């Protein structure tokens, strides 16, 4: 039997410091995530400089804990994997510098991973028997990308946001409504008490043939609605605003996902990224998809939000393909989704 490949993964692209140990791309021995959400809460969003400094403080203890939980030590690690983009440049650099130090000391391969591709790959950890063709919507704080994964695991980008990412819109509207940070979970839970049909917010690009998204108009519509109501002395029902705003986002995503699945003749739709935790998106998509016998899958919450297990998991493919990096590797804050998984 060939020796198992035990990869230590590091993720620091935004406000989660994470380290994980994954065997052969699928078996997660440890996945430690230290969220900085509390630290950024009072600013209503991630402050890049604060995020970098906190990553620097947390990275070594988080790596150490992941090794302890995995019941292993550095001498047993086959390769080091790290997120090289997209993300906040300063935050990414902390992860890469740590990964390079480990590569140098241990003399093992260094593997660079695209954060967005790793979000998609989280589904393959959750469902080891998953096979293409697949449609996947990657929805996070920084991205909204709809992709097609062909039989050979190649990725075709069908559409993406032309302005704000879905998570960004959730966070901005949450801040505007004083609901706290991160905004997605806050709006998701408050929306459960509201009427999603109370206010008809625009569903941008829903009728367009394109698979692109646009959310800035929706954001403006919500802000205008609340501002005008306040000016006119009309009391707004915040749960109704939250539910109607969320429905406007979800409707467009569900519509485009189902259309893409039909066009590409896929019977499985995947969700990935932090916003894939949204309960309304999950429920509505599953209900609509069931009508046409399309299956909807998404990773468990721990694998949906930023985590290093998805980084170490996808890195196994890079390891098999011999795609390694040298000590001169750099990060790319705007790294685009690649061509294959
Ligand atoms: O993937 P992720 O953890 O980090 C990025 O790579 O951006 O996604 C974070 C985003 C945040 O904008 C957060 O508000 C959003 O995911 N989010 C949600 C939910 N849980 C997290 N958005 C909507 N509904 C949720 N339940
Ligand atoms: Zn992410």
Structure described in brief:
This protein is α/β, with parallel strands linked by helices and 341 residues long. The protein contains eleven helices and ten strands. The mean pLDDT is 95.
Write the layout of secondary structure elements.
Layout: E1 6-11, E2 16-23, E3 27-35, H1 37-41, H2 48-70, E4 79-85, H3 89-106, E5 110-114, H4 115-126, E6 134-139, E7 144-149, E8 155-160, H5 166-176, H6 183-191, H7 216-231, H8 238-263, E9 268-272, H9 279-290, E10 295-297, H10 301-304, H11 309-320
Parallel strand pairs: 1-4, 4-5, 6-9, 9-10
Antiparallel strand pairs: 1-2, 2-3, 6-7, 7-8
The site of 5'-O-[(R)-(carboxyoxy)(hydroxy)phosphoryl]adenosine (KG4) has 19 residues, from helix 5 and helix 6.
Count of discrete alpha- or pi-helical segments spanning 4 or more residues: 11
Q: On the 0-100 scale, what is the average pLDDT?
A: 95
Gyration radius, in Å: 20 Å
Low-confidence stretches are: none
Anisotropy-based shape:
globular
Strand order of the largest sheet: 3-2-1-4-5
Give a count of the beta strands, DSSP E runs of length 2 or more. Answer: 10
Structure keywords:
341 residues; alpha/beta; 5-stranded mixed beta sheet; 11 helices; 10 strands; binds 5'-O-[(R)-(carboxyoxy)(hydroxy)phosphoryl]adenosine; binds zinc ion
Give a verbal description of the structure.
- The protein is of the alpha/beta class and 341 residues long.
- The chain is built from 11 helices and 10 strands.
- The strands form 2 sheets. A 5-stranded mixed beta sheet has the order 3-2-1-4-5, with helices on both faces.
- It starts with 5 loop residues before the first strand and ends in a 21-residue tail after the last helix.
- It binds 5'-O-[(R)-(carboxyoxy)(hydroxy)phosphoryl]adenosine (KG4) and zinc ion.
């Amino acid at each position: 039997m060939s020796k198992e490949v035990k990869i230590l993964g590091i993720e620091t692209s935004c406000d989660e410091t994470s380290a994980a140990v994954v065997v052969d791309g699928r078996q997660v021995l440890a996945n430690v995530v230290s969220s900085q959400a509390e630290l950024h809460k009072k600013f209503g969003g991630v402050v890049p400089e604060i995020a970098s400094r906190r990553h620097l403080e947390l990275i070594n203890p988080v790596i150490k804990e992941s090794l302890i939980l995995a019941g292993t030590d550095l001498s047993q690690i086959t390769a080091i994997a790290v997120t090289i983009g997209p993300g906040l440049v300063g935050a990414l650099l902390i992860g890469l510098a740590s990964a390079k130090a480990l590569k140098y000391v241990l003399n093992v391969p260094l593997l660079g991973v695209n954060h967005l591709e790793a979000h998609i790959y989280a589904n393959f950890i959750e469902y080891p028997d998953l096979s293409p063709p697949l449609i996947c919507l990657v929805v996070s704080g920084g991205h909204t990308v709809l992709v097609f994964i062909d039989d050979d695991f190649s990725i075709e980008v069908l559409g993406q946001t032309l302005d704000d990412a879905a998570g960004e819109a959730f966070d901005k509207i949450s801040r505007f409504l004083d609901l706290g940070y991160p905004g997605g979970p806050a709006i998701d839970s408050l929306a459960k008490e509201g009427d999603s049909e109370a206010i008809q917010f625009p569903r941008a690009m829903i009728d367009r043939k394109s698979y692109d998204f646009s959310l800035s108009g929706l954001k403006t519509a919500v802000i205008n609605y609340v501002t005008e109501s306040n000016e006119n002395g009309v009391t707004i029902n915040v749960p109704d605003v939250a539910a109607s705003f969320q429905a406007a986002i979800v409707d467009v995503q569900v519509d485009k996902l189902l259309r893409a699945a039909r066009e590409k003749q896929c019977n499985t739709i995947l969700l990935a990224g932090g916003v894939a935790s949204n309960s309304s998106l999950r429920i509505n998509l599953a209900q609509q998809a069931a009508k046409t016998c399309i299956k909807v899958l998404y990773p468990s919450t721990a694998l949906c939000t930023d985590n290093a297990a998805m980084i170490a998991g996808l890195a196994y493919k890079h390891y098999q393909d011999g795609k390694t990096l040298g000590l001169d590797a750099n990060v790319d804050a705007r790294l685009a989704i690649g061509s294959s998984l």
